[in-house]
Specification:
single chain, 9 strands, alpha+beta
Length: about 170
């Protein structure tokens, strides 16, 4: 289900907090699009993808926290391709991290690392996100199940652990 919310009187510094609150109440994704509304006001259009079963929790939060007086429910058709997660273990000088790489079942030419897994390594170990992301997404296509590299002056061992179907 797709919800659409027009916001024309919102503190934009709070928008990431509100978006996080929407996600914590069951939404699958939230998009914020800047725009110009009536009377030349700056506004935000939110598109919220949520399951029907989570709709009430999400809408309650939007009404209570964001000060809007209406939410539109859009009829939508969604095609979702099957995917799985390949798990890579990263050993980094005594610390071990698990990273999920999303792969399409039917198309072996696509891989995407889960950002939150990268962010955890960056926060805890200071490894730069962009080169680590490129390295992991490249590993997804390699026949080797384990590689050792140096990144930002640190030794890393990356091992494919298998897959976890979603």
């Amino acid at each position: 289900m797709l919800l659409m919310v027009n916001l024309d009187d919102i503190n934009l510094e709070l928008l990431p907090v509100y978006m996080d609150g929407i996600l914590k109440r069951g939404a699958k994704s939230v998009y914020a699009i800047n725009g110009l509304t009536k009377k030349g006001r700056l506004g935000v259009l939110l598109l919220v993808d949520t399951e029907e079963s989570e709709k009430d929790r999400v809408v309650d939060f939007i009404f209570k926290e964001m000060g809007t007086i209406g939410v539109r429910f859009l009829k939508e058709e969604h095609i979702s391709l099957p995917y799985f997660y390949e798990i890579v273990s990263i050993e980094l000088e005594g610390a071990t991290f698990k990273v999920r790489i999303k792969r399409m079942k039917e198309d072996n030419s696509w891989a995407k690392v889960e950002f939150e897994d990268l962010r955890k390594i960056w926060r805890e170990e200071g490894i730069p996100i962009a080169p680590l992301k490129s390295l992991l997404e490249s590993l997804a296509f390699m026949e080797e199940s384990e590689i050792r590299v140096r990144l930002a002056g640190r030794k890393l061992c990356l091992k494919k652990e298998g897959t976890s179907l979603c």
